[in-house]
Specification:
Radius of gyration: 20 Å
Number of helices: 1
Distance between the termini: 31 Å
Helix content: under 10%
Structural class: mainly beta
Oligomer: single chain
Shape: globular
Strand content: 35-45%
Number of strands: 30
Amino acid sequence: MMSRPRWIGASLTLATLLACASADDDPNAASDGASEYLYVWARDASDNENDFLAVYDADPSSPGYATLVSTVDVGEVALAHHSEHFMSEGDRLFVNGFRTGRSYVINLADPTAPFVERAFTSAGPYSHPHSFERTANGTVLATFQNRGAPDSPAGGLVELDSLGNFLRGTDAADPADPELRPYSLTSIPSMDRIVTTTTDMWTVMASSSVQIWRASDLTLLHTIVLPPGPQGDEHLDVAEARLLSDGRSLIVNTFRCGMYLLTGVDTDAPTIEFVHSFPFESFEAGDQCSVPWLRGEYWLQTVQATHSVVVLDVSDPRHPRQVSEVVLGESVNPHWLSGEIDGDRIVLTGGGDWLDGRAVLLHLDPSNGNLTLIDDFRTAGSKHPGVDMNDQTWPHGATYSAVPHGAVFSR
């Protein structure tokens, strides 16, 4: 449940973390367009206290760099899951507590005093929202996993207003893939298209498709089942789709560590083909490839089997080529990535050993794809990089260890 990470402990040294970094690179170098804040959506590790959004100072030139600025308690135990994948223009951030079905619209006009502007559960007949993406006119597209109770029939693609009120929606169910459940989405306004992926967050079904929709009226146009890869199951549990620099084709990854190229999205005969796989041993044992980040021609992928973040050059998308890797240490399981819109830093969350309860930053060199750990973004006195959310007394008035999940930079 909840993106299926399996986090276990082990030892780690900083030397292991930096083993793949070039000695000539400065992992602490600030990029042009560095974001001022980092927003981290988190839950109580014991699931007893309320979920909250934490705001950290992410400005390398600030005296308060890597310190906590503020928090906003959402008022209930929601079991924090995804936020939006990146901070859109405007002052609102949608965050989600998938298992409870609750989502929240957090106003960040003043990052020192954020507040919950609205909370919602369902939208029309649809329940258990998962992912959100803004449109050019300020509305929000969302994937809803179900219609009704957990793991009831497939939900749909929904458009909400800026506060999460239902505007319209279309069912995703299609006999081409009877086990599909809408998971994530990527909007392509230039082609009047939306691409959604399919993974069942309740882990009952094994979805294997992408869906293509006409954005203007939310009409479902195609449900395309992914072909198996060499291992035979790389096509299952389809995770994310990212639009490539050509503006027309997309790379799609799966939780079972396959990569696929989707083309012809705006035609009557779109195609999808297997192009790459990452190391993968056993989905049941907890291996997975989770939330990626695409920066220019570089695809960043969390790979739990190797406990690392891998960078691929996808300038030739049919032949991805690895250019760098940050190994995080045995049993450390990376999960979530999100990058700056105008900069070169990436935030990582996950779990296992030292990564439990931390949000860490990475730096991507846009000239060559070299990825390094940013060592000085750390809580004062901590042995490990990143902001430490373990055993903290929070500004909203409670003391507990927090588990970060979704995390995004301010614009």
